[in-house]
Amino acid sequence: MLPAALVAEQGKYGMQHSSNGISKVRATTRKRDGMINKISLVFKRSGIYREKGAGKGQGGAKGSKWVNAKGQQKTTNPNSLNKQGAGNRQPAPWFNPVVEKFADELADQLLDEFVEIAFNNLKIK
User: Fold this and answer.
1) pLDDT on residue 6
2) What is the Cα 81 distance to its own chain's centre?
3) How far apart are CA 73 and CA 104, in angstroms?
4) DSSP labels for the chain?
């Protein structure tokens, strides 16, 4: 449900990451002792650029390092540091508002799951 809402929000901003249109958003969870302890959302890196107002020539304060398709290590151009959210690339918050909308619903679901696990652990087996 959350991934579908994120994809819909990308559509509102006209975010296209491939020739097929909007990128996929995949959610995964990790459990420990039968209870979810980690939620991961996976999507194209360019979604972060849109959220923060970053892009070519408009990097953040720290910059970053990455390996390109040819296997070469690249770094942020020092001339673009601290220009994020300036000029023609303004932040377009598409991710955080959607996650915040789902936070209460998610908390309720996790609480229900936790209570069920706790009661099952209390039973004599």
Assistant:
1) 81
2) 22
3) 41
4) -HHHHHHHHHHHTT---BTTBSPP-EEEEEEETTEEEEEEEE--THHHHHHHT-BTTB--SS--EEE-TTS-EEE--GGGTT-TT-TT------SHHHHHHHHHHHHHHHHHHHHHHHHHHHS--
What does the alpha-carbon distance between residue 6 and residue 95 come to, in Å, rounded to a whole number? 7
Say what the pLDDT of residue 73 is.
Answer: 95
The count of other CB atoms within 10 Å of the CB of residue 47 is 21
Average pLDDT score over the chain: 81
- Tell me the C-alpha distance between 63 and 88, whole Å: 19
Question: Domain residue spans in the chain?
Answer: 2-53+91-122
**Per-residue model confidence (pLDDT) at position 72:** 95
